[in-house]
Input
Amino acid sequence: MNGWLIAAAFAFCLMAFLIAVGRIPRMSWELTAAAVLLGLAGYAWQGSPGLPGQPKMASASTDRGQFDEQLAERRRGMAERYGKAGQWLMLSDGLGRQGKTKEAANVLLAGLKQTPDDPNLWLGLGNALIAHAGGVVSPSADFAYRRAMTLDPDAPAPPYFYGLALVRAGQLQAAKELWAPLAARAPEGSEIKAELELSIARIDAMLAAGTPVAQ
Output
């Protein structure tokens, strides 16, 4: 069950208990409710209520706290590594190497407050959220990748890394739908075109063989 649902259910039960068993005066109901809500706010600040309780590990390279250096280098080769976005991304990568995945994502959120329309920061945020969730493609990571693709629809990096995250999470068909048009428009003879075509062929083989696909 989602962390938010658990917290909300607990808060509701606590409030009902205080009213029914504790018999607090009616005039104190609002004050008590405010105290319960304050507790929920503290949980939202300190915890990670939006993340699954037991994330599925797609591979060793996506384990929380284990920084994927190869993935970061590939991103630097396909997206901006200099300028303001590059500075935020370098700082985020440094925190990721220390296993501080939450801080790595928060750094990029800080950068997006300054430049909310930077597709490179949105791409980096998507990767950081995937790392923090142990390979799970959370709704927030999904939004970050899609935002990057919307801001720079011609850039190959956002759909490439979004598709890679989907593959590692077992969402093969969704990854193919992202990669097929990217491979089609990639330059003939390019390394990325060959890589994508090979990956798509492998996905087709796995789907034909009945490999379980994550929902």
